[in-house]
């Protein structure tokens, strides 16, 4: 009896560690997924550091209009911005000149990406960029320190979206905004693999589950949603 109880307890502990206290379930992975399911959505595979060339491609402006994203972020000069899943820092270095009295925190879990960002920081002489090494469960931001967090085509790849979402909320100032860019999952004509796209309904469901308030969705981009959420000024009781 003791051995059976011990084994059951061990299995429960391992399940909690792997699947986040019941937030996740597991299934047979599809071609582009990891088999881990959160709120009905299979989590996609991660784009590695080998995709830097694709992230830095010269026709990205024409395809995705990041300059319009910058206009719609409505940044203040002294804002502290967190680029979560910064990758090569493509958006980090678009935002940095817009916050000359603030800074951009480039967060990624891949040291190779952060090394690339450090090189760009020196090359571009952009001192207000701070690379931060996160983990799969924590963005490692100081509590209540960030005016805006932005995730560009990154959230759907998080292996621990609940934990990462909660850590982002912790890092946001009360009233701080979270902006997500995700390829439009409702639109089959968007030429992106299905698990690398998200619907507005799914994003809202997952963000509201961690206590964020939905502000708006703007569909001014060719193939992506621009979704805005806000951390409540007063905690939800």
Task: Describe what this molecule looks like in 3D.
The protein is 31% helix and 27% strand. It is of the alpha/beta class and 237 residues long. It starts with a helix and ends in a 7-residue tail after the last strand. Strands 4, 5, 6, 7, 8, 9, 10 and 11 form an eight-stranded mixed β-sheet that branches. It is built from eight helices and eleven strands. A hairpin with a 6-residue loop joins strand 1 (24-26) and strand 2 (33-38). The chain has one domain (26-230): 3-Layer(aba) Sandwich (Rossmann fold).
The CATH architecture name reads 3-Layer(aba) Sandwich
State the CATH topology: Rossmann fold
Beta-strand percentage? 25-35%
Mind telling me the CATH superfamily name? Vaccinia Virus protein VP39
Counted by DSSP, the helix tally is 8
Please provide the ordered H/E string of secondary-structure elements: HEEEHHHEHEHEEHEEHEE
Q: How many distinct beta strands?
A: 11
What would CATH call the class? Answer: Alpha Beta
Low-confidence stretches: 1-19
The rounded Rg comes to: 18 Å
Q: Please give the largest β-sheet.
A: 8 strands, mixed
- Coarse shape: globular
Average pLDDT over all residues: 89
Number of domains: 1
Distance between the termini: 43 Å
Report the helical percentage: 25-40%
Helix/strand-derived category reads alpha/beta
């Amino acid at each position: 009896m003791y051995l059976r109880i011990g084994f059951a307890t061990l299995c429960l502990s391992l399940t909690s560690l792997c699947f986040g206290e019941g937030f996740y379930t597991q299934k047979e992975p599809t071609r582009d997924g990891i088999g881990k399911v959160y709120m009905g959505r299979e989590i996609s595979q991660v784009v590695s550091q080998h995709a830097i060339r694709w992230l830095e491609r010269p026709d990205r402006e024409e395809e995705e209009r990041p300059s319009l994203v910058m206009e719609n972020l409505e940044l203040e000069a002294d804002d502290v911005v967190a680029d979560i899943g910064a990758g090569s820092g493509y958006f980090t270095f678009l935002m940095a000149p817009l916050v000359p009295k603030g800074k951009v925190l480039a967060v990624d879990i891949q040291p190779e990406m952060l090394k690339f960002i450090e090189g760009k920081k020196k090359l571009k002489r952009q001192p207000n960029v701070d690379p931060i090494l996160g983990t799969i469960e924590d963005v490692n931001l100081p509590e209540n320190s960030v005016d805006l967090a932005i995730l560009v085509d990154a959230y759907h790849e998080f292996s621990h979206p609940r934990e990462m979402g909660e850590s982002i909320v912790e890092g946001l100032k009360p009233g701080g905004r979270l902006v997500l860019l995700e390829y439009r999952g409702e639109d089959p004509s968007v030429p992106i693999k299905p698990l690398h796209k998200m619907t507005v309904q799914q994003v809202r469901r997952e963000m509201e589950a961690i206590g964020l308030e939905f502000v708006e969705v703007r569909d001014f981009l060719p193939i992506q949603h621009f979704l805005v959420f806000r951390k409540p000024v007063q905690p939800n009781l």
